[in-house]
Amino acid sequence: MNGKSLLQKLSVLSFFTLLLTTQMYAQFSLSGEVRPRMEYRHGYSTLTDKDSDPAGFTSQRTRINFGYAKDNVKLGISIQDVFLWGSESQLFKTSNTMSLHQAWGQVFITDNFSIKVGRQELVYDDQRIFGNSNWTQQGRSHDVLLLKYGGRMFLDVGIAYNQSEERLNGSYYDLRNNYKTMQFVWFNTPLTHNMKLSLLFLNNGYQYDYIEIVDDTPKDKTKNVFNQTIGGRLTFTPNTWMFHASAYYTMGKDTADRDLSAYYVGLGIDKAVSNDWNIGLGWELLSGTSQKDVIDDPQNYKNRSFNPFYTTAHKFNGYMDYFNTNGDFANSVGLNDIFAYIQYSRKRCELNLTAHGFMSAATVIENGTTDKTMDSFLGVELDLTMSYRISNSSSVVMGYSQMFGTKTLQNLKGGDHNACNNWAYVMFVFKPVFIK
Fold first, then answer.
1. Of 14, 166, 264, 266, whose Cβ has the fewest other Cβ atoms within 10 Å?
2. CATH code for the domain in which residue 371 is found
3. How much of the chain, in percent, has pLDDT values that exceed 70?
4. What is residue 73's predicted lDDT score, i.e. its pLDDT?
5. Residue 88: predicted pLDDT
6. Does the pLDDT value for residue 256 go beyond 60?
7. What are the distances in angstroms from CA 172 to CA 126, 225, 254?
8. What's the rounded mean pLDDT across residues 340-360?
9. Contacts of 133 (CB under 8 A, 6+ apart)
10. In angstroms, rounded to a whole number, what is the distance separating the alpha carbons of residues 160 and 130?
11. Pick from 241, 147, 237: which is nearest to 186 by CA?
């Protein structure tokens, strides 16, 4: 065991000791989570080849969550360790996989107004723009200052400014997959007793590196580029129905300093047929960039691909994550997703079957050509999931998914659309509460 790993473990142990010896003076909560997940992959995220061997592995998340509340102050700390089974030697543990998922403090200035600052999850509405990405073992959190108002209506104002190290001069930021600055305003209010409206404004700032010729000499330069997203979500829940609609528009510059103009529309209907059965139908449109535009003007084309930025991506557009805009589908041809589901829930068990029909939102050009347009139909995905609650603190979740892709999908993703592209998993979830 190296010195850094030992220091981490001693720090955690010291915190436990301090917490337990002072709980008589304050209100503490302590909970844990152990979540191993076994996965079988043969066409997950991208089409496989017929002669490719499937992949199999087990990943695990382990979390300890501390909470504190007294008077007008709240604290939340979440320490996690994420690893793959067998990724390190049994005798010599040298990997540094422990991280701080959340560490925030909140002070209430009044009963309705508070300031919350630190590393924290941001989860709003259906998680289409802001989500905690809970499916991924590492999750998602932000280092941000929040001004929060909560009463009959809710208002959150968030401000973030990131640096990768402490500096004496300048503000260069070298994490290219992250924003440098971010500000947002989220507003939620009831319109009637069964109708709610949410509005969102989001401003992202990224650092862009480029080369400028000065006196015939190339010079490394840096500037900040910004984009803005505006939109909202409306929900209407009469009796056993739920209707929801969302729309967002993004403008400004992308991370490559290219003009950006993109939009998103989502519609859905859910119905509780009985106490045990639910059904639903929905449609999502994420605008995309035509490959014809890219071919015709590769230097100056406009980026029309919508990016939901901090979404919980696994929740949307199929569990096989073929169209994750945080991955290789970023800045692509966009997506039309028509889906329907049926859900059965009874006591401790829940079954869910969802079918997706995918089409590109913009023109796809056949590889090796400059003008041969392909059909927009990308394929059908079927997702079957089952969960069973073993006890109040433990459950098991299982899933099987299959993608029936097309030549157009193969053109975009590679692999073989005629191969059997499927994915399965079994996940055990243990979430004990030690101190309430």
1. 166
2. 2.40.160.100
3. 93
4. 96
5. 85
6. yes
7. 34, 13, 18
8. 98
9. 139, 140, 310, 311, 312, 313, 314
10. 14
11. 147
Q: Which tens digits make up the pLDDT trace of 297-324?
A: 999 999 999 999 999 999 999 999 999 9
The angle subtended at Cα 140 by Cα 136 and Cα 146, nearest 5°, is 160
Q: Which phi and psi angles does 12 have, rounded to 5°?
A: -65, -45
Distance in angstroms (rounded) separating the CA atoms of residues 40 and 214? 54
Is residue 19 situated within a structural domain? no
Question: With pLDDT > 90 as the criterion, what percentage of the chain qualifies?
Answer: 83
Alpha-carbon distance 115 to 430, whole Å?
32
**DSSP states along 351-419:** EEEEEEEEE-SS--B-TT-SS-BPPSEEEEEEEEEEEEEEETTEEEEEEEEEEEE-HHHHHHH-S-TTS
CA atoms of 282 and 71, how far apart (whole Å): 45
User: Which residues lie below 8 Å from residue 272, measured CB to CB, with a gap of 6+?
Assistant: 240, 241, 278
Both tokens assigned to 12: 């955690």
Count of domains for the chain? 1
Distance separating alpha carbons of residues 187 and 387, to the nearest angstrom: 34
What's the CA gap between 84 and 64, in Å, rounded? 18
Residue 44 in any domain: the answer is no
In a domain, 432, yes or no: no
Identify the domain containing residue 155 by its residue range.
Answer: 103-424
Structure tokens at 9: 């473990």
CA-based R_g, the chain, Å: 24
d(CA 115, CA 123): 17
Identify the pLDDT of residue 306: 98
Give every CB contact of residue 107 below 8 A, 6+ residues apart in sequence: 72, 73, 74, 114, 115
- For residue 361, count other CB atoms closer than 10 A to its CB: 23
